[in-house]
Amino acid sequence: NAYVTKLNQILGDKLEGETIEAIAVKAKADGDGPLFNQAAQHFNHSFYFAAMKPNAPGSMPAELETALTKDFESVDALKTAFMDKAVGNFGSGWTWLVYDTADTKLKIVNTGNAGMPEGTQRPVLTMDV
């Protein structure tokens, strides 16, 4: 809520109708650090919490399991690599499972502070570290 409140104070009615991701990307490109921090943290936290579901099924979709196995050898290997990457993320930030459209692979990336996946990286899962 604090990120949304502060973001609304900074924006007013500028960029009305834009997605939160588009606002963050534009703010970063424009070098507007305060706007980027609020918009990116709003995006990151919204993405993070949207992935949490009560009573989620005990198994993942077969298509996802196939993709994880292709790029990480196994789901367990992904879990280990994800946790290792998260533990190695220095300071405040995020660890992401992303799909990189440039080489059509799933990857694990760290971002610092309010950082978010960029360019050809599409977020799949994240953890606030």
UniProtKB/TrEMBL annotation:
Pfam family, one: Sod_Fe_N
TM segment ranges: none
Keyword tags: Metal-binding, Oxidoreductase
Enzyme type, top EC level: oxidoreductase
Residue span(s) of domain Manganese/iron superoxide dismutase C-terminal: 62-129
Statement: the UniProt record of this protein carries the keyword Oxidoreductase: yes
GO molecular function (one): metal ion binding
Keyword Metal-binding (UniProt): yes
Residue ranges occupied by any Manganese/iron superoxide dismutase N-terminal domain in the UniProt entry: 1-52
Reaction catalysed by this enzyme: 2 superoxide + 2 H(+) = H2O2 + O2
EC numbers on record: 1.15.1.1
Domain of life: Eukaryota
Function: Destroys radicals which are normally produced within the cells and which are toxic to biological systems.
Record family assignment: Belongs to the iron/manganese superoxide dismutase family.
Protein name: Superoxide dismutase
Annotated organism of origin: Crypthecodinium cohnii
